[in-house]
Amino acid sequence: MSEMVNNEDLAKLLINLGCPESRSVEMSHQLTKRSLQLAKERNQTQPESLAYLISLMSQGWAAQDKTNAN
Q1: 2, 16 in Cβ contact below 8 A?
Q2: What is the pLDDT of residue 19?
Q3: pTM of the model
Q4: Which of 14, 41, 47, 67 is the most buried (most CB within 10 A)?
Q5: Other C-beta atoms within 10 Å of 61: how many?
Q6: Helices (H), 1-70
Q7: What is the pLDDT, as a whole number, of residue 17?
């Protein structure tokens, strides 16, 4: 069975990775939902799917920060 994700902790993590604070709670809920879907599609655990999605989002925010700096 999948481990339950604490959306408050996830929201804090997202903020630390570059997510706008005003969107962090909404994004954490969306990520939780999508990670469950992805876990079923790929036959993996929810934490594995969640880690993958967080990695993608982190890369996107890093690229956006780099673009904004130029």
Answers
A1: no
A2: 86
A3: 0.76
A4: 14
A5: 15
A6: 7-17, 24-42, 46-69
A7: 87
Half-sphere CA count of 4, side-chain side, radius 13 A: 3
Count how many residues are written for the chain: 70
Residue 62 has pLDDT above 70, yes or no: no
Specify the higher pLDDT residue, 53 or 63: 53
Tokens of 15: 């903020």
CA distance 70 to 14: 23
Q: Is the dihedral of CA 28, 65, 62, 18 positive or negative?
A: negative
| CA–CA dist 38, 27 (Å, integer) | 16
The single-letter DSSP state of residue 52 is H
